[in-house]
Amino acid sequence: MEYSKEFKQALSEFSSKEKDKLIFRLLKKDKLLSKKLYFELIDEETTDDKRNTMEENIRERILEISKYIGNQKYFLVLIRKLSAEITEHVKVTTDKFGEVSLNLFLINEILEHNKKLGQQRFDNVYKLYIYLINKIFKALTLIKKLDEDYWMEFDELLENLNDKIDNNIYLSKLCVNNGLDFNWLKCENIPDHFELIVKNIKSEGFLR
After folding, report:
1. What is the pLDDT of residues 95-150, one digit of tens each?
2. Do 68 and 78 touch, CB atoms closer than 8 A?
């Protein structure tokens, strides 16, 4: 929504008391904005601090919810909730590095339980694996938009991920079937036109 000059002028004429009252009313309705302003204005924790906390949270939560791997529908619901917390972290802190690193860390932590996942029927884990493959494509897309100075750290996560995919036959085959080239799991090998590649893969009915 665009605001007219008249509307902006009317708002600027509010008294300080009226503005404060309006701000608090808006913040009550927008918890994300409240968290973002708190972080930017008075939070003593840095973006790195919050990313490290989020990483530890992911590690603990995946360990806890891994007991539900046998109930794939519920397990995926819990994974999506955890993923939403990463999204909130990114929105609050504008942590572009963390948007990639935390999502790759999440996938790696899930695949730490490859043994349990391997005991499931393929049709039971299909939705989870497609969800993870989409996350991998998204992470690679984001990496291409970030400074190359970050690549060394991302390569560690991607190498770890590559090893775990190698140890999961179903996931490995599904990656290939959905157009994921394992050479891309090294930052320097991600094609410049990667977004277009992903768009074409999706247009052919894959990644769903």
Report:
1. 999 999 999 999 999 999 999 999 999 999 999 999 999 999 999 999 999 999 99
2. yes
Instruction: Name the one residue in this structure whose structure tokens are 């060394």.
Output: 152
Amino acid at 170: Y
Distance CA 200, CA 133 (A): 15
pLDDT tens digits along 20-41: 888 888 888 899 999 999 999 9
**CB neighbour burial string for 21-42, b if at least 16 within 10 angstroms, e if fewer:** eeeeeeeeeeeeeebbeebeee
Q: Who contacts 42 (Cβ-Cβ below 8 Å, separation ≥6)?
A: none
Q: What are phi and psi of 32, to 5 degrees?
A: -65, -45
Q: Are 100 and 143 in contact (CB under 8 A)?
A: yes
Exposure pattern of 150-177 as b/e (b: 16+ CB <10 Å)? ebeebeebbebbbebbeebebbbebbee
The answer to whether the beta carbons of residues 96 and 102 sit under 8 Å apart is no
Q: What is the pTM of this model?
A: 0.92
| Max CA pair span of the chain | 66
